[in-house]
Amino acid sequence: MKLKPTGKILGARVEDLDISVPLSEQDRSEVMSALGHYGVLEFPEQTLSPQALRDFSAQFGELFISPGGRAQEPGFPEIMNLSNIVRDGQPLGLSDAGQSWHTDMSYMPMIAFSNVLYALTIPFRDGRPLGATQFRNMHAVCEALPPEIKARLNGRRGIHDFEKFWDMMRREKGSSRPALSEAERRARPPVSQPLIFPHPITGREVLYANPGYLTGIEGLPQKEAEELMDWLFEFQERDEFLFEFHWSPRSVLMWDNIGTTHNAVADYGLQEPRHIKRCQVMATEFYSSAGTGIPVQALT
């Protein structure tokens, strides 16, 4: 296993590691540490069956199964298909084109630790890969906050709502996402999470406030909360926090949902096929289960 950092604000490439077989405990530990410190890891030139993708992901925590069941891999409900491909009149998966900045699963009582994505088909135009995934380093964002803003955030909790992001995605051109069912709404009620807390691997504070799901701040009038959230979202847009990953077929991308936000770049069309398989790893490796919000007691 060789680790090659990008030298940028985020990212490292993991070479000479076959993730289609179970990792040794040493390799698993090194991947976990690297993920916390570099935020985004690429494992190039992998060949994974659905079972191998699921089993690799499950070595890092409990896997989430969507209650909607849309676009699940047959026989593997832990795997979601992300694709703009239509076969026999049916979408192969959920389209992730046109997303905006967010942190997956911030709306859940047990938050997500990591995403694991396996690229099968990547669109190219003029020899250049399309559909990049962008990231922002929320360790760096938190450290750069003005003291007066950080003082306003410390000890407060943000309100995260799944429906905000889903409805925004439905408004995107070409979206195949239907409205949420009542059962899906009940399965994902709004939750509150600390706005600032220590990362379970690095120990450094992160800002846990993303534009996709954050809808309010407990203890603040909505107008004041919206003004503060708008300021935070604009502050995160600074180029110094940005890292952009360009996909290759057979690459596996693993990123830390606690220390980053991400965005899918929609620069490809419906006739430029894209297909990626995804597993969502929850933060059960680090936290015990609690009512709502990030559990306060780490397990490691």
TrEMBL record:
Pfam family, one: TauD
Annotated Gene3D superfamilies: Clavaminate synthase-like (3.60.130.10)
Record bears the keyword Metal-binding: yes
Molecular function in Gene Ontology: taurine dioxygenase activity
Record's keyword annotation contains Oxidoreductase: yes
EC number(s) given by UniProt: 1.14.11.17
Name of the top EC class for this enzyme: oxidoreductase
Superkingdom assignment: Bacteria
Family of the protein in this entry: Belongs to the TfdA dioxygenase family.
Protein name: Taurine dioxygenase
Species for this entry: Ottowia thiooxydans
